Amino acid sequence: MPSEQTLSADVVIVGSGVAGSSIANELARAGISVIVLEAGPRVDRQHFVENFRNLENKPSYQGPFPAVPWARHPPNQITPNDYLHTSGPNAEAYQQVYLRMMGGTTWHWAGCAWRYLPSDFELKTRYGQGRDWALKYEDLEPFYYQAEVMMGVCGPDPAKEDLGSPRKQPYPMEALPISYAAQQFRKLIDEKTPWRVVHEPQARNTRPYDSRPTCEGHNNCMPICPIGAMYNGSYSVYHAEAAGAKFIPNAVVYKIERDSANKRVTGVQYYDPDKNSHRVTGKYFVIAAHCIETAKLLLVSADEQSPDGVANSSGHVGRNMMDHTGVQVTFISGDKALWPGRGPLETNVIDNFRDGDWRNERGAYLVHMVDDNQVDFATQMAISKGYVGRELEEQIRYLSSHTVRLFSHNEALPDPDNRLTLSKTNKDILGIPHPDVYYKLPEYTVKSCEHTRKVFKELIGLMHGTDEEWTPGYFPQDHPSGSTIMGTDPKDSVVDGHCRTHDHENLFIASSSVFSTVGTGNITLTVAALALRVADTLKKELLHG
Amino acid sequence: MKKDWPCVPVNLQNVSPNAMRMARLMRMSRRDMLMTGMGAAVTYGVASGIAGAEETQPSPASGADPVATQFMAVSRLLTDRPTLDLRIGNAIYAGIVQSSADRQAQISKLHDLMGSGQFTSASAFAAAAEKADPALKDVIHDIMTGWYRGVADGKVVVYRSALMFDITKDAIYPKTYATGGPFYWTTQPPEVDRPTGHPALSPSKFVVEPT
Question: 0.90 exceeded by the pTM?
Answer without folding.
Answer: yes
